[in-house]
C-alpha cells in the first residue's frame, strides 16, 4: 500500500475510533464534533471534485450546502406542522424520512449546480471565482428576504429526522449515518477519479486544448463535474442542517463557501482523503482555539496564510510526499 | 410611484453606484495591473470606516475623519501589500483567494478585538445634514448628494490620473506588459505598492462615506466587496470605465428594483404576497443582470482579457 | 488524383494590420504527405490553427471529409477525424505517458462520460493506447510521469496520442523539432508508413525530413502560398529560392 493509502486508512479509522472512544468515555459532545467533521468532510469531498480534479475554483459552494439545508428544513417543517408544501397541481407533503430528504437535497443541489455551472463555466479564472461567489450570495439574499421559511431567522426543527431502523437522536447512531455516507461518497469519488471521465476532467484542468483535440468538450466535462460536486455538497448540507436541527441563511453565506475551500486546501487539494484531514483539522482548531480565545479566527487566518505561503501540499500532501495523487 | 419619488430613488441608486465604484475601481486596477484577485478589499473599506469613526469621535471633524479614512486605508493597504500580497503575484488564483481570505479573517477579528463587537456610529456633520431642494422642487438629502458629487469628482480624477500622468502611463504599461515596464527601469515593486495603496485609499474613503449612512461594524466590507465583484464582472476585469458603468448600473438596478418590484407585483397579487415576492426578487436582480451580461458578453462590457 | 480529404479554399485571416493568411488554398489527398514550409513568421501556425478549428478565418472555407467545417470548433473537427500534433507539446504533464495515450483512446471511443470502471482497466482503451505507444517506441516509458520525459520523448508522445485517434488526416506542427538524429530518423520512418493510413499535412523546419518524405510541398511566405509542387519543382522554383535566400541574408 502506498504511503497515501496508509494515511487514508489511518484517517478513515481515526474518524471512526474517536467517537467510539467518546461513547466509552461518555463525552457526547465529542461525538457531535466528529459528526461535524464527517459532514464538513463530505461537503469538502464534493468541492474537491470540481476544485481538485477539475481545477474549478468555486467560491460559491455554499449555494449547494445551503440548498441541501433548506431542502431538509422545508420538508421537515411541513411534516412537523402537517401542512402540505403544494396542494396544486398535486398534493406534496413534507417528510421526516432522511433518505427522502437526501434525495430531494441532492436533486435540488444538482439542478442549481446545473444552472449556475452552465453560466459560470462560460468563463474561467478570476471571472469564474467572482461569478460563483456572486451567485452564492444571490441565494443568501434570497433566503434572507423570502419570509415563508423564516427569512433571516431561519427554520428550526424540533426533532431530528428519522432513518429506518436507527434512533437518530442517539449521537453515535447519527454519527454512523454521516460516517457511512462519507465513506460511500469517498468510494464514489475514488471511482470517478480513476474513471475515463475523471481522466478526461483531470486532463482538461491541465491542458484543455489537448482534450478538445481528442474530440472531447471540456465545457461538458466541467459542467458534469460541477453538478456532481454540487450534489455531494447538497447532501452534506442536508445532514448539517439535521445535525443542528436548524437551517438559516448563514449556510448560504459566502464565508461558508470560503470555509469549505479552506478545509479542502488545508487537507490537500485533489487528495482523496484531503477533505477528511482538513475538516478534522478545522473543527479541532475551532474547538481548541475557540476555547482559548474569542478571536480564534485570527489564528485560523494565520495558519491558513502559513499553509498557502509555505506548505502548499496541505496536510495529506505534506505527509504523503509528491507521489501522483491519482496513482 | 410619483415622479419625485422616482428621481429620489434614481439618485439613491447613483449614490450606491459611486460608492461601489470607489471600491470596485481599486479592485479592478489591482487585477488589471498585478493580475491579483483580492478578497480582502472589503476589509480596507472597513478599515477606512473605522478610522473615520475613531477620528470623528476624537476630534468631531468630519473632514479630518475622511482624511483619516484615506490615510489609514492607504497605509494598511501598503503594509499588507509589502508583507503578504507581494508574495502572491506569481501564484495561481486559488492561492490568492486563500491568502486574501486569511487576511479577511485576521483583519476582521483584529478589528473586533480592538474596537469590540458593537457597531460604532459616524454621524453626518451638521453642515451636510438636512435636505436640499433640487430643480423641480424635489427634496433630497444633502449628504447623499455630496457623496455623488465627491464620487464623480474622484472618478474624473482617476481617469485623468491614468490618462495624463506619468504614474498613469506606468499603470497602463503594467497592464499590457510587465516586462516592458521593468525594462524601462520602473521600480515595479514600488509601482505595485502605490497602485495597491491607491485602491485601498479609495475603498477606505468609500467606507467612511457609507459609514455615516449605515453603522460601522465588522463584516461591513464583505457585502460591498461582493457587489464590487458583480460590478467588475459586468464592466470587464481591469477596466476603470467598465467599473464606473458597471457600478452605476448595479447601483441603479438594485435601488430601483427594491423600490419598484413590490409595487409592480401588487398589480396582480395581494399586498403581503407582493411585498415578499417583490423584495425577494429585487434582492436577486443585480445577479440576474450579471447573468444576462455574461450570456451576451462573457468578458464583461469593457473587458478584453479572458483572464 | 483521388478526392481530397482536406481542402483549404481562399482562406484569409488578419490580426489588425497584420495579414497572417492571405487567400490561402491547399489540399491534402489520400496517401500523401503534403509539407508546408516557410520562413519564421510566414503564418504557418495561424494556418494550422484555422485548419484545426482554434481560429476562425475572416474569409474562405475549409472542407474536411467532404463537409464544410469552417464554422466547426476543435472538438467537432477532431470527431470528424482530424488528428493534430502541437508545435509546443500540449500534454497532461502530471499524468503518466500511458494516461496521455489513454485520453486519446478515450476521445476516439466517443464515450468519455463513463464514471465507474477505471480507465486503466478498460481493455479496449488499454489496447489502443498501448498499440500507439508501441508504434512510436514509448512502451518502456509507459508508466513514467510525462513531465519526466525528455523533450524528444514528449514530441513522440504527441504523435502517439494522435495515432490513438486513428484519424482520417494528420496535421502535424513541427513533429521533428528538438529530436536528435536517431529520433528524427525513427519518426521519419513512422510518418513514411503512416501516410498510407491517413494523409499528413506536415509543417516542418527539418528540410532533410521534408525532402525525404514529402509528396508535395507548399511554400508559405508572408501569409501567401507562393508555390506548390513536388520536391523537384520546389527546389527549382526561382521565387522559392529568392524567398529563402532573402531570409538567409
Strand order of the largest sheet of chain A: 1-2
Total strand segments of chain C: 10
Quick one: CATH class of the largest domain in chain C? Answer: Alpha Beta
Could you tell me the radius of gyration of chain A in angstroms? 19 Å
Helix tally of chain C equals 9
Shape of chain A: globular
The CATH topology label of the largest domain in chain C is: Rossmann fold
CATH architecture of the largest domain in chain C: 3-Layer(aba) Sandwich
- Estimate percent helicity of chain C: 25-40%
Shape of chain C: globular
Low-confidence stretches of chain C: none
Largest sheet of chain A: 2 strands, antiparallel
Structural class of chain A: mainly alpha
The total number of structural domains of chain C is 2
Strand content of chain A: under 5%
Our measurement of the CA-to-CA distance between the termini of chain A, rounded to an integer number of angstroms, reads 11 Å
| CATH superfamily caption of the largest domain in chain C | P-loop containing nucleotide triphosphate hydrolases
Low-confidence stretches of chain A: none
Return the string of H and E elements of chain C. EEEHEEHEHHHEHEHEEHH
Describe the structure.
Chain A is mainly α. In chain A, 72% of the residues lie in helices and 1% in strands. Chain B has one domain. Chain B has helices spanning 3-34, 41-59, 62-83, 93-115, 142-164, 166-176, 178-183, 188-211, 221-235, 240-266, 271-296; strands spanning 131-134, 138-141. The radius of gyration of chain B is 20 Å and the shape is globular. Chain B starts with a helix and ends in an 11-residue tail after the last helix. Chain C folds into two domains: 6-81 and 167-248, P-loop containing nucleotide triphosphate hydrolases (Rossmann fold); 90-153, no CATH class. Chain C contains nine helices and ten strands. Chain C has helices spanning 44-52, 74-80, 97-109, 123-136, 151-164, 181-194, 207-213, 231-236, 238-248; strands at residues 6-15, 18-28, 33-37, 59-64, 67-68, 82-85, 169-173, 200-203, 216-221, 224-229. In chain C, the strands form two sheets. In chain C, strands 6-7-8-3-9-10 form a six-stranded mixed sheet, sandwiched between helices. Chain C has a four-stranded antiparallel sheet with strand order 2-1-4-5, with helices on one face. In chain C, strand 7, helix 6 (181-194) and strand 8 (200-203) form a beta-alpha-beta unit. Chain C is globular. Classes of the chains: A mainly alpha (327), B mainly alpha (307), C alpha/beta (249). Chains in contact: A-B, A-C. At the A-B interface, helix 5, helix 10 and helix 12 of A face helix 4, helix 9 and helix 11 of B.
Amino acid at each position: 500500500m502506498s504511503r497515501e493509502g496508509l494515511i487514508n486508512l489511518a484517517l478513515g479509522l481515526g474518524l471512526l475510533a474517536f467517537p467510539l472512544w467518546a461513547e466509552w468515555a461518555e463525552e457526547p459532545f465529542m461525538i457531535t464534533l466528529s459528526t461535524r467533521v464527517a459532514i464538513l468532510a463530505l461537503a469538502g469531498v464534493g468541492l474537491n471534485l470540481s476544485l481538485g480534479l477539475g481545477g474549478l475554483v468555486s467560491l460559491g459552494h455554499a449555494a449547494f450546502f445551503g440548498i441541501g439545508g433548506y431542502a431538509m428544513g422545508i420538508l421537515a417543517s411541513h411534516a412537523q406542522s402537517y401542512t402540505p408544501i403544494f396542494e396544486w397541481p398535486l398534493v406534496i407533503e413534507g417528510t421526516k424520512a432522511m433518505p427522502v430528504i437526501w434525495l430531494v437535497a441532492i436533486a435540488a443541489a444538482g439542478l442549481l449546480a446545473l444552472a449556475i455551472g452552465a453560466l459560470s463555466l462560460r468563463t474561467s479564472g478570476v471571472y469564474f471565482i467572482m461569478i460563483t461567489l456572486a451567485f452564492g450570495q444571490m441565494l443568501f439574499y434570497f433566503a434572507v428576504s423570502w419570509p415563508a421559511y423564516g427569512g433571516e431567522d431561519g427554520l428550526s426543527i424540533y426533532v431530528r429526522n428519522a432513518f429506518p431502523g436507527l434512533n437518530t437522536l442517539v449521537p453515535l447512531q447519527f454519527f454512523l449515518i454521516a460516517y457511512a455516507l462519507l465513506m460511500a461518497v469517498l468510494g464514489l469519488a475514488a471511482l470517478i477519479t480513476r474513471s475515463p471521465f475523471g481522466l478526461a476532467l483531470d486532463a482538461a484542468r491541465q491542458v484543455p486544448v489537448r482534450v478538445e483535440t481528442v474530440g472531447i468538450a471540456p465545457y461538458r466535462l466541467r459542467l458534469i463535474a460541477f453538478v456532481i460536486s454540487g450534489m455531494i455538497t447538497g447532501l452534506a448540507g442536508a445532514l448539517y442542517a439535521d445535525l443542528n436541527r436548524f437551517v438559516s441563511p448563514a449556510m448560504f453565506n459566502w464565508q461558508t463557501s470560503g470555509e469549505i475551500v479552506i478545509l479542502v486546501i488545508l487537507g490537500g487539494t485533489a487528495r482523496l482523503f484531503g477533505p477528511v484531514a482538513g475538516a478534522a483539522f478545522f473543527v479541532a482548531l475551532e474547538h481548541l482555539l475557540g476555547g482559548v480565545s474569542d478571536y480564534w479566527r485570527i489564528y485560523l487566518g494565520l495558519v491558513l496564510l502559513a499553509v498557502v505561503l509555505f506548505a502548499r501540499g496541505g496536510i495529506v500532501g505534506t505527509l504523503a510526499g509528491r507521489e501522483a495523487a491519482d496513482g | 410611484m410619483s415622479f419625485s419619488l422616482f428621481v429620489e430613488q434614481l439618485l439613491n441608486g447613483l449614490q450606491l453606484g459611486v460608492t461601489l465604484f470607489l471600491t470596485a475601481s481599486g479592485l479592478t486596477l489591482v487585477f488589471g495591473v498585478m493580475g491579483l484577485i483580492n478578497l480582502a478589499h472589503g476589509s480596507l473599506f472597513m478599515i477606512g470606516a473605522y478610522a473615520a469613526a475613531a477620528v470623528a469621535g476624537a476630534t468631531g471633524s468630519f473632514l479630518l475623519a475622511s482624511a483619516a479614512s484615506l490615510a489609514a486605508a492607504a497605509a494598511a493597504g501598503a503594509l499588507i501589500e509589502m508583507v503578504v500580497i507581494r508574495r502572491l503575484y506569481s501564484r495561481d488564483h486559488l492561492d490568492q483567494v486563500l491568502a486574501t481570505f486569511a487576511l479577511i479573517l485576521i483583519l476582521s477579528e483584529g478589528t473586533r478585538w480592538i474596537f469590540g463587537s458593537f457597531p460604532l456610529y459616524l454621524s453626518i456633520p451638521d453642515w451636510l445634514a438636512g435636505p436640499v431642494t433640487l430643480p423641480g422642487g424635489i427634496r433630497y438629502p444633502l449628504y447623499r448628494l455630496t457623496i455623488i458629487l465627491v464620487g464623480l469628482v474622484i472618478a474624473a480624477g482617476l481617469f485623468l490620473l491614468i490618462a495624463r500622468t506619468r504614474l498613469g502611463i506606468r499603470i497602463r504599461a503594467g497592464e499590457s506588459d510587465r516586462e516592458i515596464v521593468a525594462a524601462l527601469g520602473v521600480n515595479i515593486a514600488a509601482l505595485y505598492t502605490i497602485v495597491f495603496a491607491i485602491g485601498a485609499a479609495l475603498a477606505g474613503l468609500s467606507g467612511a462615506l457609507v459609514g455615516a449612512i449605515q453603522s460601522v461594524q465588522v463584516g461591513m466590507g464583505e457585502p460591498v466587496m461582493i457587489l464590487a465583484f458583480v460590478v467588475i464582472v459586468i464592466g470587464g476585469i481591469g477596466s476603470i470605465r467598465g467599473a464606473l458603468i458597471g457600478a452605476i448600473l448595479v447601483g441603479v438596478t438594485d435601488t430601483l428594483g427594491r423600490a419598484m418590484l413590490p409595487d409592480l407585483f401588487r398589480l396582480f397579487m395581494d399586498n403581503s404576497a407582493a411585498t415578499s415576492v417583490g423584495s425577494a426578487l429585487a434582492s436577486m436582480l443585480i445577479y440576474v443582470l450579471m447573468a444576462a451580461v455574461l450570456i451576451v458578453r462573457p468578458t464583461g462590457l469593457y473587458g478584453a482579457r479572458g483572464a | 488524383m483521388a478526392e481530397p480529404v482536406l481542402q483549404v479554399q481562399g482562406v484569409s485571416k488578419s490580426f489588425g494590420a497584420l495579414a497572417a493568411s492571405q487567400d490561402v488554398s491547399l489540399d491534402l489527398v489520400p496517401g500523401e504527405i503534403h509539407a508546408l514550409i516557410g520562413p519564421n513568421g510566414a503564418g504557418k501556425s495561424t494556418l494550422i490553427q484555422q485548419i484545426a478549428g482554434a481560429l476562425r478565418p475572416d474569409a474562405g472555407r475549409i472542407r474536411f471529409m467532404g463537409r464544410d467545417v469552417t464554422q466547426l470548433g476543435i472538438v467537432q473537427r477532431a470527431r470528424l477525424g482530424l488528428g493534430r500534433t502541437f508545435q509546443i507539446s500540449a500534454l497532461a504533464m502530471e499524468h503518466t505517458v500511458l494516461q496521455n495515450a489513454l485520453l486519446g483512446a478515450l476521445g476516439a471511443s466517443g464515450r468519455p462520460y463513463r464514471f465507474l470502471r477505471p480507465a486503466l482497466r478498460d481493455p479496449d482503451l488499454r489496447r489502443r493506447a498501448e498499440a500507439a505507444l508501441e508504434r512510436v517506441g514509448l512502451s518502456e516509458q509507459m508508466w513514467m510521469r510525462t513531465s519526466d520525459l525528455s523533450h524528444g520523448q514528449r514530441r513522440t508522445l504527441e504523435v502517439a496520442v494522435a495515432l490513438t485517434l486513428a484519424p482520417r488526416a494528420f496535421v502535424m506542427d513541427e513533429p521533428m523539432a528538438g529530436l536528435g538524429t536517431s529520433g528524427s530518423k525513427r519518426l521519419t520512418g513512422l510518418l513514411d508508413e503512416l501516410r498510407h493510413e491517413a494523409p499528413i499535412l506536415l509543417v516542418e523546419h527539418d528540410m532533410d525530413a521534408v525532402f525525404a518524405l514529402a509528396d508535395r510541398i507548399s511554400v508559405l511566405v508572408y501569409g501567401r502560398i507562393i508555390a506548390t509542387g513536388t520536391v523537384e519543382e520546389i527546389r527549382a522554383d526561382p521565387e522559392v529560392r529568392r524567398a529563402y535566400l532573402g531570409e538567409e541574408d
